[in-house]
Structure formats: C-alpha cells, structure tokens
Design goal:
It contains three helices and six strands, in the order αββαββββα. The protein is of the alpha+beta class.
Length: 155
C-alpha cells in the first residue's frame, strides 16, 4: 500500500507546483522543490537550487495578470525513496500590456526524492513542444462580461 500512498503524495506535489505558480505564490514552491534542485526549462541554461529556480519563476511571472496550468500526470514510478514522473503540460499566461494570451504545450520529466518525510522534485526538465500567442479576435471575453470575479486569497 505504501506505493499507492507515495504515488498520491507525488501527484499532489506535481499539481501543487503548478498551482503555486498560478496563485502568484512562488514561495509555496519551497514545499515542493528540493533545496538542491537541478532544472532546465526548454533550451534555457540549467538552473541549480530551489532558490535559483524560485527567483527565476518570480522574475518571469512578475508581469503576469494570470496564469493557468493544466497538468496530466501520465506515470509515476516509485523505487524506495526515489521516483520519476512524466507530466503533460498545457499552460496559458496573460501579461500586463498585452492583449494576447500565450500558450505553451510541453512535458515535464521529473525526478523526486523523499526529503525529510516529504516528496520533493529534485530534477525537472521542461520539454517545450509548442508555443503560440492567441488573440480574442471575436471579442468573446467581452461578450461574457469580461474577466472576473476576483477570488479571495485562501490560506
């Protein structure tokens, strides 16, 4: 039964990674990322340490009006205190001063370790498959009353 519990805990961490970014709370990533994380996003230079990656995410998203990640965990393989996961990714971002919405499609190739009793992402490779900018040429957002309502901050 431990493997099933581990898989659920791992999936929760993988989804929490995206929801922490979407909620504009990059500090919550400290609960998800291993302090000695190694990560590469697309063809960018690899980054080492959770601090470095969280700083990079904070900087890259500082002008985001909103973000919306859709993740599907395709598989998790647990071997003792280590695991690997393949996560399919689609995300949308809207930036200040830009009427378009940006779309990214890719896959996360993650390695996780049990760290102080919790699963943490220790290695992350984001393989970018597709990207595009989308305009609301038909004015659909306006026709449904615009963006909203504002949701209160939850703990």
């Amino acid at each position: 039964m431990t493997t099933v519990e581990d898989r659920i805990a791992i999936e929760d961490q993988l989804y929490r990674y995206a929801s922490s970014i979407d909620s504009g709370n990059p500090d919550a990533l400290y609960d998800v990322l291993h302090p000695d994380l190694w990560a590469q996003y697309g063809n960018a230079e690899p980054a080492e340490s959770a601090d470095t990656v969280i700083g990079w995410i904070r900087d890259a998203t500082k002008n985001c009006v909103w973000q919306h990640h859709l993740l599907s965990v395709y598989h998790v393989d647990v071997q003792g205190d280590t695991a690997t996961a393949l996560v399919y990714h689609t995300s949308y971002q809207k930036f200040e001063g830009d009427d378009d919405v940006c779309l990214l499609v890719g896959r996360y190739h993650d390695e996780l370790v049990r760290h102080e009793g919790t699963w943490k992402i220790s290695r992350l490779v984001f393989e970018i498959m597709w990207g595009e900018r989308r305009a609301d040429a038909a004015g659909y957002l306006e026709s449904v009353g615009g963006r909203g309502p504002q949701v209160p901050d939850w703990p």
